[in-house]
From TrEMBL:
Full protein segment contained here: 1 to 180 of 1190
Swiss-Prot/TrEMBL domain comment: Contains large globular domains required for ATP hydrolysis at each terminus and a third globular domain forming a flexible hinge near the middle of the molecule. These domains are separated by coiled-coil structures.
Subcellular location: Cytoplasm
Residues involved in ATP binding: 32-39
Source organism (scientific name): Acetivibrio saccincola
Top-level taxonomic group: Bacteria
Known function: Required for chromosome condensation and partitioning.
Oligomer and partners: Homodimer.
Residues of the signal peptide: none
Membership in a protein family: Belongs to the SMC family.
Name this polypeptide is given: Chromosome partition protein Smc
Amino acid sequence: MHLKRLEVQGFKSFAEKIVLEFNSGITAVVGPNGSGKSNISDAIRWVLGEQSAKTLRGGKMEDVIFAGTEHRKPLGFAEVSLCFDNTDRTLPIDYSEVIVTRRVYRSGESEYKINKTNCRLKDITELFLDTGIGKDGYSIIGQGRVDEILSTKSEERRHIFEEASGIMKYKIKKQEAEKK
Ligand code: ATP
Ligand code: MG
């Protein structure tokens, strides 16, 4: 499985809709300071369900919506879609292409979609559980996270290995069953 495409519209500095295509292998994003490189990884984190405005380097969730410039009016919503090649069925859903979408309005209301069908945030979280791709997965390692992983407590480190080895799904199901 790999990330094929990212579509961003009205998210942070991306007023106009942009489409980034990723091939297999390594993609490097380069550009001057403030040009929007980190906004791309913020967009990926956000569509995977990040709920913390702070992690997204803002004060409140509304800050992810394009705020306008001297020449352009602010926008009313932000939308990001990620398209995965799922021909190997890493994601437990019977489609070769999986598109995950999130949209947020200034009211704070969020909408989530899997392959263009409305769903809950929980469905997206479950889809990526144990794949390492979720918002807390090890596929996105922010600045400073490497140090954090090395210096963190052993139980917290175990958490990372549990997600990587694929047993997190069962732990969460067990916790949910115990709650009922
Ligand atoms: P660096 O090399 O310094 O890390 P970068 O390429 O990672 O820079 P980003 O942090 O991705 O840059 O982008 C910052 C830019 O995004 C700033 O110019 C900021 O004004 C703009 N920006 C952030 N949020 C919004 C928003 N809601 N609306 C419009 N522009 C925004
Ligand atoms: Mg940056």
